[in-house]
Give the backbone structure.
Amino acid sequence: MKGKLFRFTAGTRIFHWIHAVCFILLGLTGAALVYSWLQPIANIFGGIQISRDIHRWAAAIFTISIFVFFLLGASGRELRSWAKSSFKFTKDDFAHAKNFPIEFFGGHKPFPPQGKFNGGEKLNSMLMITGLLCIAISGYIMWFASSMPQWLVQWAYVAHSGFALLIMAVFLAHFYLGVLHPDSNQALGGMFNGYVPEKFAYEHYEKWYNQVKVENKNT
Amino acid sequence: MTEKMVFVDTSLCTGCRACSVACKAWNDLEAEKTQLITSYQSQAATTPHTWTYISMHEKYENGKMQWLMFKHQCYHCADAACMKACPSKAIYKTESGYTLIDHDKCIGCGYCTANCPWSVPKVDETVNKSFKCTGCIDRIENGLKPACVSTCQPGALHFGDRDEMEQLAQNRLYEVKKEYPKAQLYGDAIMGGTTYLYLLLDRPEIYGVPSNASIPLSLTLWKDLVHPLGGIAIGGAAIAVVGGVFANFALGNYRNRGKEVAESQDKKGGQ
Ligand code: HEM
Ligand code: SF4
Ligand code: SF4
């Protein structure tokens, strides 16, 4: 594609959207259980019992898809290296992330060249990966509460609820930057057809841009 | 109605389980297949259809065996952990001191089971509703004694006004202590004071119940800290997103999109 750089394989993109749909379903059906006045949310799905069932079905699909896509060939490699690199937070990442509030509200400040994922994205990924792991583990403890020690179930509620609410807040910011933010939403194409504008890549991920250019020349 | 109380005098309980049967009869609870748990004990825990049962504990001292009996059911705590845990506001307290479940509101999540120190309420998975002892609220509001109390032959169960029962318990404790120095009351010092008050012949642990039952710390953190903080985090993020859209709009970043994005931003950036 002219003027575009390939960023994400089909597997990664499918995985992303499976997770997005499951996450929104899990968030809404979960929120219906936080306060009694939020319970009417469940009416979107046809009642609280259906809503509770959806929470379990979405959770199962959510979990299975992690195993499937992280093991799958090309997208598996891509996802594994994404997860790994997210936890390698360097000085350059920090330099990018500290300007995050300025970028968020539409300003701009120069930052050192970034790799495939910039500091802000790494923060989002770290929070998402850690949070979702804790949510999934505590969620299964709550699901199978009757065969778990009581103290474990009691603390699972705290963890599940806490991380779920935190990650929902992170999700709002992620949605804003990916869809609503006039500059960073240029990345959205990467999650649909896999390509992002070359110019955008150069401005946001200079190190990655140079790397891809070299690789493309060699092939 | 004034505050009521059931006094369970375990020193007089013979373990006949008539209370269990009377409870089933009055509340129309179906029979369940039982099995021996220890010696004569036939029930290990409450179930959606068994709201009260007797646990039997054998204590050996100086080569003599002694039966210790314990009647289990909802304690109808003043500080009811189940009520705090319920996400559906299905559990409420009556003036008379009882903890009741409104089955129209109950969604069967089992949060009450996990947070009650004795795991008293149990969810019937076929109807997704939680069940437990009602204290026979329908009887006592009509001037009758609870079914278990009215059936108890040896006089181990007493029902009446709270202060009356507390007085009776103190008197019995004084009597029983002469023969059983470890005798003590159970219920007055836990969960803000329970509606079922016990006279035990030994420490609660010997009967398999916790002496320091309280609202779980995790429950307080969950409901009083995590929920409000989570709400603030989500609310804060939502406000930031709306603010971000407005800021970008005001800075002209939407209008200039597609044109020289980088340039227009460099001009404005970071001031
Ligand atoms: C593997 C993933 C997950 C599993 C196995 C799981 C399981 C559960 C279970 C069993 C419950 C109890 C609800 C009931 O009995 O009806 C629950 C509640 C809840 N879940 Fe999940 N869940 C998962 C993922 C998520 C995610 C990703 C979110 C948020 C985006 C979420 C948000 C919630 C919330 C907010 C509650 C209510 C907690 C409260 O009352 O404070 N869950 N979950
Ligand atoms: S004994 Fe358990 S179910 Fe009964 S009122 Fe106390 S906390 Fe609730
Ligand atoms: S099972 Fe019913 S009574 Fe128990 S916490 Fe859930 S909604 Fe409340």
About this structure: Residues 219-270 of chain B form one domain. Confidence is low (pLDDT under 50) at residues 261-271 of chain B. The two ends of chain B are 69 Å apart (CA to CA).
